[in-house]
């Protein structure tokens, strides 16, 4: 009985999702990201408890560049040597 009602609920959700418009995905954007370290003292100058960085995303350029030109091969890797 429960299984049948769950299937009916899932079918209803799928049917509702088909008729709703999906949001459009932005192919180019930039945004500023703020990270906050809540365990650091906000009144002290160092270390900073808030850090900011900007993210730039350009999907058409990303599709044209070879993988080696997009980022270096050692970026993001951590070596424990």
Overall mean pLDDT stands at 75
Radius of gyration: 23 Å
Strand content: 15-25%
- What gross morphology would you assign? flat
Strand order, main sheet: write it out.
1-2
Description:
The protein is an alpha+beta fold. The protein is 35% helix and 22% strand. The protein has a two-stranded antiparallel ribbon. The longest helix has 18 residues, at 2-19. It is flat and about 60 Å long. It starts with a helix and ends in an 11-residue tail after the last helix.
SSE layout and pairing:
Layout: H1 2-19, E1 28-36, E2 50-58, H2 59-64, H3 67-70
Antiparallel strand pairs: 1-2
Supply database-style keywords.
two-stranded antiparallel sheet, alpha+beta, 2 strands, 81 residues
Summarize it.
By secondary structure, the chain is an alpha+beta fold.
């Amino acid at each position: 009985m429960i299984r049948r009602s769950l299937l009916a609920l899932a079918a209803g959700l799928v049917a509702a999702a088909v008729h709703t418009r999906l949001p459009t995905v932005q192919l180019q954007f930039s945004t500023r990201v703020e990270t906050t370290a809540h365990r650091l003292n906000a009144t002290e100058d160092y270390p900073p408890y808030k850090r900011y960085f900007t993210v730039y995303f350009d999907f058409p350029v990303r599709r044209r560049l070879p993988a080696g030109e997009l980022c270096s091969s050692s970026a993001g890797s951590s070596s424990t040597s």
